[in-house]
Amino acid sequence: MNEMPYGIGTIVDLTPAQAEEKVRDALAAEGFGILTEIDVTATMKAKLDVDVAPYRILGACNPALAHRALQADRDIGLLLPCNVVVYASEQGTVVAAMEPTLMAQISDAPELAEVSAEARERLVRVIAAVEAG
What we know:
alpha+beta
């Protein structure tokens, strides 16, 4: 698992489609649903006639955590849902999730520290599950 300034992720030896399937399963096991999906590859082709390697953004949401976060700070919705990306790279398929603890660093609401820490634990388990295959 790799730590990034604004995310956590890994590189796996799977196709993007295989990795996405595992991500979806692991997110569901952690109580996340997918609210939004952006097929960046298809969008770039349709809007700019540019070919890019497979890249998909999944807007993942755990309703209980989102509710707690919004109760603490209504404006935190600007940072929801938790984006998870799956994309092809020269090293393999990248699977990465946004760093949810950034919410607690941005907001003055003390309750967000606990909510974002729990979201991070769940997303770390998602990444670990994808790594484990």
